[in-house]
Write a structure and sequence with these properties.
5-stranded antiparallel β-sheet, Jelly Rolls, 3 helices, 10 strands, disordered C terminus, mainly beta
Length: about 190
Amino acid sequence: MGLRRSFKPINIVQGGNFPSTSGWSATASTNTVSNNILSNAGDGTNASARVNGTTSIACVIGKKIYIKAKLTIKNSVASGLILYVGTTGIGGKEVVRQLIPTQNIQYTLSGIVTLDANDVGNIQPRCYHYYVDAATANGKVMEVQQVFAVDISTLPVEIQSMSDANIKSLLDTFPWFDGALSASGFGGIGGLK
């Protein structure tokens, strides 16, 4: 791809490797953290449970966001997993859905969404697990690891001009990182030179 060695994406997600639950709230569920894994347990008030992250990035019409997370369902009755770019106001976009996930299998979900006029507030990464009804969701756990997101408008122009599929393929090669990534530590991953 001929990318510059100075290519340094910035992870806009705060605390995405879960040193604690700080910066992460729960909806229709509770969060706990152990060994950099966030466990989100449904509380039985809704058929879906979710964890909500924090960023300081405002929604802007046309802004593209890449997001990636590792999700593991810890039960055999989940209907699905969803990776979502939400907002602190109204709006949001589903990134990708994993139907009928297999218990104890880790899924790496990722994708790109483009914000529009319906997206208001700051960007909020979200991970959902959902069930046939609220009673089934009660006590069911999803594990979340290594959430990161990149504001594509902060990437070099030659990357911004690539197709969404090619940008996703490039960013999918990066492991989790906090803050600004130092390209010097990658030795060629993703075409870095």
